Amino acid sequence: MSQRSTFDLSPPTPQQFDALAAALTADERKVLLDHGTESPFCGVLLTEKRAGVYACRLCGLPLFLAGNKFDSRTGWPSFTTPFDEHHLAYIRDTSYGMVRTEIRCARCGSHQGHVFDDGPPPTHQRYCINSVSLEFVASTDPLPDRLGRGAPEGAVWHDADN
Ligand SMILES: [Zn+2]
């Protein structure tokens, strides 16, 4: 898998994290910080089809590209591959009597969803992500730069695959 980016993956300071967490809604906090799952078919990103980037709702790190989104009919936004595998943390999750792989933002540690191996070819991966964990950034808009890291954050992301 290609390494797309030169994003600064060092975590937010505790002060930055607290400030960003304080700005979340109750629903966002429940998923991102308390590892909850939103109800299926409630997410506003389900029908989003524009070109762009899906970034972490908390810290703004790009996690998925619109070009890798597909309709899994599960009721959650689903992707076949990450923006950059280094932008995700993969955690073994044995809650609810199941063995699953939890997906977190590799930079801020916020919960995103789970990845399953029943996705479409060629990757056969299904990244099943909560809408409230993500922020859609249209391809014409600059990426968020919530941590003051500078470019490529805060700039429009150009990607040939997207
Ligand atoms: Zn994050």
From TrEMBL:
<dbReference type="GO" id="GO:0005737">
    <property type="term" value="C:cytoplasm"/>
</dbReference>
<dbReference type="GO" id="GO:0006979">
    <property type="term" value="P:response to oxidative stress"/>
</dbReference>
<feature type="domain" description="MsrB">
    <location>
        <begin position="17"/>
        <end position="139"/>
    </location>
</feature>
<dbReference type="InterPro" id="IPR002579">
    <property type="entry name" value="Met_Sox_Rdtase_MsrB_dom"/>
</dbReference>
<comment type="similarity">
    <text>Belongs to the MsrB Met sulfoxide reductase family.</text>
</comment>
<dbReference type="Pfam" id="PF01641">
    <property type="entry name" value="SelR"/>
</dbReference>
<protein>
    <recommendedName>
        <fullName>peptide-methionine (R)-S-oxide reductase</fullName>
        <ecNumber>1.8.4.12</ecNumber>
    </recommendedName>
</protein>
<dbReference type="InterPro" id="IPR028427">
    <property type="entry name" value="Met_Sox_Rdtase_MsrB"/>
</dbReference>
<dbReference type="InterPro" id="IPR011057">
    <property type="entry name" value="Mss4-like_sf"/>
</dbReference>
<dbReference type="GO" id="GO:0030091">
    <property type="term" value="P:protein repair"/>
</dbReference>
<keyword id="KW-0560">Oxidoreductase</keyword>
<dbReference type="GO" id="GO:0033743">
    <property type="term" value="F:peptide-methionine (R)-S-oxide reductase activity"/>
</dbReference>
